[in-house]
């Protein structure tokens, strides 16, 4: 039986993982962005999804073989489109930092990811017809308001700090370039919501084969992540050859190389943790389980902003801007409570 409050807890753990995965990259030395992004991608989109599925789905290969080809194909395709968003999402971190980059990219992603699945199923208008649906819609509105407050804080930061101050915490800080990349990343990343929806028949096959309901999303993530890996590996290798950084993977002392591989792989494992817990969380959210996407995005923004404050990305800003950041975080936390309550009413 669904337990929305437990689902929110699982989503919070997933949000913590997603909001933290970029931290190991801060210690990578001498590698270009495309090199460490590719290594984390191998860990995040190939190794860890398979490992998680093998541990939770005993008859994994049979489940995949028995799944509808159409579902597998669409999950892979939407995963590849989402991969483009993930690729540009990494760039938004370079140009905006963790706090602002996450807020802008995931704000757009939250809105599109929430609206598209019910619109596809013709259920969007139905949500206005009961208390549960109205509460969830109100929670989404609160979430978008919190994202807007975080974005406002970022604009204030841009106005208050000198170029030198901004680049002390974010070396390649660029508001215009970063906003453009983050908005595009958010729109494309919303394809993950469609990929998860396309993979639902795979989960049904898994449950029919005796897999625990809470792990039913795990096999689909193998296919979805493979799609994301495809677009990312192609682009990273193109950049490696274009920028003449293909030698990153073998150049340097054994100790330096081992550290870079370990840190990049750790980032990938942490990154996949978000969807492992997200998949379990959605099984607990009741009939409006697509609201999970907005909860997930809200928690990511909360934790990424907390990390941004920890790493002093907001050093030197005014008291008003810091109040705006903390206000945005609190509003986002409130939104998850409202959405969780709406799902509880539906249950």
Kindly report the average pLDDT value.
84
What series of H and E elements makes up the topology? HHHHHHHHHHHHH
Largest sheet: none
Number of strands: 0
Count of folded domains = 1
What does this structure look like?
There is one protein chain. This protein has one domain (4-346). It contains 13 helices and no strands. It has helices spanning 4-20, 33-56, 60-66, 69-121, 131-160, 163-169, 175-189, 191-198, 200-208, 218-242, 254-282, 292-310, 319-346. Helix 1 runs antiparallel to helix 11, helix 1 (4-20) crosses helix 12 (292-310) and helix 12 (292-310) runs antiparallel to helix 13. The mean pLDDT is 84.
List the SSEs and their pairings.
Blueprint: H1 4-20, H2 33-56, H3 60-66, H4 69-121, H5 131-160, H6 163-169, H7 175-189, H8 191-198, H9 200-208, H10 218-242, H11 254-282, H12 292-310, H13 319-346
Helix pairs in contact: 1-11, 1-12, 1-13, 2-10, 2-11, 4-5, 4-7, 4-8, 4-10, 4-12, 5-13, 12-13
């Amino acid at each position: 039986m669904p337990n929305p409050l437990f689902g929110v807890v699982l989503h919070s753990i997933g949000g913590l993982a997603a909001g933290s995965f970029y931290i190991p990259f801060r210690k990578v030395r001498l590698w270009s962005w495309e090199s460490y992004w590719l290594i984390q991608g191998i860990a995040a989109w190939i190794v860890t999804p398979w490992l998680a599925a093998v541990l939770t789905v005993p008859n994994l290969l049979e489940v995949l073989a028995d799944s509808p080809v159409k579902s597998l194909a669409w999950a892979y395709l939407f995963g590849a489109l989402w991969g483009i968003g993930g690729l540009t999402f990494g760039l938004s971190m370079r140009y905006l930092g963790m706090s602002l980059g996450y807020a802008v990219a995931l704000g757009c992603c939250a809105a599109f990811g929430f609206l598209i699945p019910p619109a596809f199923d013709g259920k969007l208008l139905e949500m206005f017809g009961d208390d549960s649906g109205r509460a969830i819609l109100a929670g989404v509105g609160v979430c978008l308001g919190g994202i807007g407050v975080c974005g406002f804080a970022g604009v204030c930061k841009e106005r208050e700090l000198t170029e030198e101050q901004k680049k002390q915490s974010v070396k390649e800080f660029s508001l215009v370039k970063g906003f453009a990349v983050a908005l595009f990343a958010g729109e494309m990343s919303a394809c993950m919501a469609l990929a998860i929806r396309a993979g639902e028949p795979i989960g049904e096959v898994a449950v029919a084969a005796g897999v625990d309901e809470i792990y039913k999303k795990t096999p689909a993530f193998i296919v979805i992540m493979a799609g994301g890996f495809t677009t990312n590996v192609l682009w990273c290798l193109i950049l490696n050859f274009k920028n003449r950084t293909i030698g990153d993977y073998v150049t340097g002392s054994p100790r330096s190389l081992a550290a870079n591989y370990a840190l990049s792989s750790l980032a990938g494992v942490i990154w996949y943790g978000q969807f492992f817990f997200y998949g379990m969380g959605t099984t607990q959210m009741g009939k409006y389980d697509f609201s999970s996407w907005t909860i997930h995005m809200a928690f990511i923004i909360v934790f990424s902003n907390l990390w941004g404050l920890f790493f002093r990305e907001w050093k030197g800003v005014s008291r008003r801007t810091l109040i705006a950041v903390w206000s945005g975080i609190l509003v986002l936390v409130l939104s998850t409570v409202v959405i969780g309550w709406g799902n509880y009413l539906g249950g």
